Every structure is written in structure tokens, then in C-alpha cells.
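Ticket 4471: requesting a sanity check on a complex prediction with FFO. Repro inputs:
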Amino acid sequence: MIGARVFCIPTATLERSSSSSIFFFFPKISTRPVSRVSTTVAMSTTSKSQEELDSIFKQKRVVRTTVRKSLKAMNPSLRTQQDDAIQNTVLEAPWFKSCRRLCAYISCKSLNEVDTSRILSKILQHPGTTTTAASMTNVADKKLYVPWVEDKKSNMRMLHISHMDDLIANSMNILEPALVDALGNEREDVLQADEPIDLFILPGLAFDRCGRRLGRGGGYYDTFLKRYEDRAKAKGWSNPLMVALSYSPQILEDGGIPVTPNDVMIDALVTPSGVVPITPPAIERM
Ligand SMILES: Nc1nc2c(c(=O)[nH]1)N(C=O)[C@@H](CNc1ccc(C(=O)N[C@@H](CCC(=O)O)C(=O)O)cc1)CN2
Ligand SMILES: Nc1ncnc2c1ncn2[C@@H]1O[C@H](COP(=O)(O)OP(=O)(O)OP(=O)(O)O)[C@@H](O)[C@H]1O
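Returned C-alpha cells:
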């Protein structure tokens, strides 16, 4: 575990990116701190005019462009080093070892996302292929759900997979569960998660140490997580741990991530230097 507890302070207007020494000027940017009762940003939609929203979405696009550039410029051996460090941290973490149902993203090389291939292989490792009893106990009984994009209107589901062979590239060139088998028959084992999830391993373009997360602009995760949260509340499920994986250039200083009302905050960040627990449940468990 790195980084002691971080206290998030309200916004300043001049913000500095920690990773690239670039200064962002965001007039009146909203960076209010986390509400973990509702994981969405504590800000009412109605309190923002469309003009203000347009301005924040514009700021998001500016940050995305900057972070994409830093990711593209990352030295390949540094990237591999960071992929290894991040995946080792996850694989060795008690909160990962103890989780039974999780949703994780399938990393996409062309998007320069933190690699999840070793994490996924470990989860999908089947009893009999493991070498030691210790490795079997922790992974063989995990149920894995991965994203499946339903449409272009921010609708996404999480579908169960048992093998990497269950995947096929979608129109965005991201691997996702195939809904039919090689013979064209509907696969019955691909079901939408309708059970409590212990852990979400989230992608994203940029993060701060206070739990703010900037996605790729599709609104898929925010929409999904809000719906999941509503369903969990209705069914009395406990909150999952929401953990994002981040290369060092993706971690911005507090205030560097523009936020809009639907943004869902994360509980913790896994960085190349270790875990940054953010919310009380994460601080308790990490
Ligand atoms: N690995 C992975 N799977 C995922 C996501 C993700 O971020 N990563 N998603 C998370 O939502 C959903 C898919 N959403 C996506 C949204 C945008 C792009 C994308 O290619 N964006 C380009 C810019 C495109 C543009 O601006 O027109 C990019 O970011 O470079 C990909 C996936 C579900 N599956
Ligand atoms: N100016 C705007 N006003 C209102 N909605 C907007 C505006 N610009 C984009 N959106 C919508 O906001 C959503 C994207 O939100 P945001 O940029 O916060 O997503 P994100 O961080 O990529 O989300 P995630 O990674 O969680 O999927 C999309 O549904 C998009 O249509």
C-alpha cells in the first residue's frame, strides 16, 4: 500500500498535471469531493446550466487529448514495467484474492490501457492447470464478467466468460464476449450479471488521488455503475470495491479532472507504486 490517506480539497482554478508538467486552466471547474453514499459526483444536474456543462465536457476533451499524448509517448519498456508492477499488486492483494464475482475490462493495446491479461488469465485458470494448491484456492472459484457494448448510447452490460476463446473483437477493436458460438447458436452461458459483484476493475484515461475518473467519452461505465448501484440498493447488496488501474502519466493532481454530474467516483487506484485507497471502505480493506 502506498500513499497515506489523501484529503481532497475543493477546487482551485489553476491546475497542474502531475505527470506531464502541463498546466491546465479550468475556469470554475467543478471538482467537488467524493460522495460514497452515492458514488456519483455530489453535484446536482439541475444546478448546472447546459452552457456550464458544455464547458466542462469541453475541458474533459482537452484533458483526454493531453493524456492520450502522454500515453502514446510512454517509453515501451517503462510501460511493460508498469504493467507488471500494477498486475502484481492486484494479483497479490487480499481484496483481489478474496473476491468471488468481479467485473474487469479486457485491455486494448491500441488504446494504451493498463494490461489486464495476466489478471484475466489467472482468474480463468482452471483447476488442474494450476501448479500449486495455494494458487488454486485463490483463483479457481472466481466468476468473471467483462464489458459488452450494447449500442452507441452509453448502454453496456457485463457478461460472464469462462475462457478467453469466448471473446471476439467489436467495432471498437476491443475484445468482448461473442453472443453466438462458431455454429451460430446463441451461447447460453453468457448471462448478464444479476448478482452482487465484489470488485470492479475499471479502465479510464485519467484519475486523481481523490477518486475522480475520466473515461473515454462514451459514458458507458458511469451509466452502468449508476444502474448497478441502484439495483444493489434495491436488493440490499453491499457495495462493491471500485478499483481503477493507472499508469503514472494518467494520474493528475487534484483538480485536474473535470467532473460532470454523472461521473462515478472510484474507491481506489492501483498505480505502479502500489495501491492508493481513497474511500473509507477501501482504506479499511487495503
Ligand atoms: N478495454 C476497454 N473496454 C471497454 C471500455 C474501455 O474503456 N476499455 N469501455 C469504456 O467505456 C467501453 C467501450 N467504450 C469505448 C469508448 C471509446 C473508445 C475509443 O476508442 N475511444 C478513442 C477515441 C474515439 C473518439 O474520440 O472518437 C480513444 O479513447 O482514443 C473505446 C471504447 C466498454 N469496454
Ligand atoms: N455537452 C454535453 N452535454 C451533455 N451531455 C454530454 C455533453 N457532451 C457529452 N455528453 C454525454 O456525456 C456522456 C459522456 O460522459 P463523460 O465524458 O463523463 O464519459 P466518460 O468519462 O467517458 O464515461 P465512462 O468512462 O464512465 O464511460 C456521453 O453520453 C455523452 O453523450
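Notes from triage: The chain has one domain: 2-285. Leaving this open until the requester confirms.
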